[in-house]
């Protein structure tokens, strides 16, 4: 059986039969070669593993490098923006301070010029020119009047005024609050007014003595007119009290400013009429009293 089942083995091209160790003269060398091949394969596997681990570690380093580079770029960009903003803000603030200094310099120069121009003046009170408007207080006035009647219609008042004139007496119409009062005289005291009323009653007139007042008011006129009008009310009060001085009225008329308004021209004209009576008539003439009433009415309605 052993001969029938021979096994033939080729080793390096040589045929060999049998299974004993002697049949494999290069058996030891073959195992050494196989072991060497196995070691080479293991070394190759180890090298591959090392290469693979090295390949995996490299992207991580690159990623970290990219992150660091990105952070540096962001920091640099932020720093540049901060510098640009700071420089721009600095220029803006510098421009603002320069403009403020220029504005402050203008009033300072104007003040210096004004002080130089006004160095010869002894007062710092502002000068009001004649063309500038100023407030003038029209003072409240009070007196006792001789009243002939009160009418709700102007035509009725004018008809009654005509009747009084036909009887030889003068009167004037004072319109106030929709009523028309007919006055025939004025005095500074009630006693004097009653005396004048008795004289008029002898001519057949019904006279009622009453106190009459006007309120204070303020008007706007230029400085020259204001100075001129301020002396009117004291003169009027003195004249009503019987202290007549035609020279003072003459001076007042002569110092009237040019370019008076229509109400002021009417007041001046009525005063001129009264002044003419002062020169030619008795000081307590009833006609003078009526002119004083007309002057009062015009003065109050300026």
TrEMBL record:
Residues 1-25, 108-129 are annotated as: Disordered. The chain crosses the membrane at residues 72-94. Residues 138-215 form the SPOR domain. Residues 111-129 have a biased composition (Low complexity). GO terms for molecular function: peptidoglycan binding. Gene3D superfamilies: Sporulation related repeat. This is SPOR domain-containing protein. The lineage of its organism: Bacteria, Bacillati, Bacillota, Bacilli, Bacillales.
């Amino acid at each position: 059986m052993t001969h029938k089942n021979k096994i033939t083995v080729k080793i390096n091209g040589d045929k060999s039969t049998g299974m004993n160790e002697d049949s494999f003269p290069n058996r030891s060398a073959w195992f050494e070669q196989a072991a060497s091949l196995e070691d080479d394969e293991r070394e190759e596997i180890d090298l591959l593993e090392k290469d693979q681990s090295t390949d995996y570690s490299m992207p991580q380093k690159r990623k970290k490098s990219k992150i660091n580079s990105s952070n540096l770029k962001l920091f640099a960009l932020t720093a540049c923006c901060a510098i640009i903003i700071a420089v721009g803000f600095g220029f803006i603030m510098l421009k603002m301070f320069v403009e403020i200094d220029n504005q402050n310099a203008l009033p300072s120069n104007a003040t210096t010029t004004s002080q130089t121009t006004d160095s010869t003046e002894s007062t710092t009170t502002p000068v009001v020119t004649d063309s500038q408007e100023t407030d003038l207080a029209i003072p409240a006035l009070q007196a006792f009047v001789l009243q002939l009647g009160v009418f709700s219609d102007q035509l009725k008042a004018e008809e009654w005024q005509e009747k009084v004139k036909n009887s030889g007496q003068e009167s004037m119409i004072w319109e106030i609050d929709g009523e028309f009062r007919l006055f025939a005289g004025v005095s500074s005291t009630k006693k004097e007014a009653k005396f004048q009323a008795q004289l008029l009653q002898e001519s057949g007139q019904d006279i009622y003595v009453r106190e009459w007042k006007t309120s204070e008011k303020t008007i706007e006129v230029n400085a020259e007119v204001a100075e001129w009008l301020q002396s009117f009310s004291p003169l009027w009060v003195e004249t009503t009290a019987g202290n007549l001085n035609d020279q003072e009225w003459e001076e007042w008329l002569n110092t009237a400013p040019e370019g008076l308004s229509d109400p002021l021209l009417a007041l001046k004209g009525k005063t001129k009429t009264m002044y003419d009576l002062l020169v030619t008539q008795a000081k307590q003439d009833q006609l003078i009293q009526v002119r004083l009433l007309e002057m009062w009415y015009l003065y109050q309605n300026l």
